[in-house]
Request: fold
Amino acid sequence: MDNNEMISPEHLILIITATIVGTIVRALTIKQDYRQYPSHPNGYLIHLITGALAAALGAFIVPTLMTKNFVAVTFLGLAIQQFREVRKIERESLSELERTEFTLRGDSYIDGIAKTFEARNYYALLTAFITGLTMQMLDRKTWFEIAVGIIVGFLLFTFLRWFTKGKHVRDFATVTQGKIEVRGSELYVDGMLVTNLLGEKLAQKFFNEEGLAAVVTAKEPHFRVTLEHFGQRQAMLFESTRSIGKRRYAFQDLADGRIIIALVPIVNDFNLLKETILRTPLLESVKKSPQLMSMNMTESGKK
Reply:
């Protein structure tokens, strides 16, 4: 097919199939991202359209190569630059929203979210490309090509999701409910001093009657390196207040290697607070080497 001719029916089917598969992949990952940022429905729509465009770019790679239209392939470089712009825009948007939240997300959390949204577009592009490539390599009937292309595309998606899957707080820490005590202007949790700034009578009353406290303890001593990182603690505090709200104050302190989160929530539900903290993602900016994150590191050091 010459460059001036209309696209062939075979290539049209390939492009449509690969684009649909890539778009579906992006739609599936939006659900994973929901806890961190995308609003509904506008946030969903923005990321879905961006993912569909990424999928379309991936779907067009094979037909343009087959027709020797190498100039069109160079547009991939421009597309990748646009994906990087998506990361920049998300970072700026989340930074602007900081002032409206119960507590701050923190720069580390925002950076991780922005990188994740950029990576999701590559999911769509790569899946669409592999789907199209598989269909092109098969010299069979149309329906067979479509079926195999879709299967290979979703297998790649499964691999990418496994490869990029991050850890959560539950992987390296436990969460227990702490007992709150107010002694004058001092706030204690399980006998440990959290703050001495609880001077207002109303604040003391709130904590005595409605306060919740969570004690986060590292499963292994070396996990404290990650758990006590300021960005990771800030992410846990943010997710906690966004999940159950914050009517009064939120405190965060370190004592004996434990993180203490004490607050007066809008929704007084410790189980919800606990599950929220455990599901907080491990930030990429605080990740250490696999050896450091290994559960067996302590045992290995003893040998």
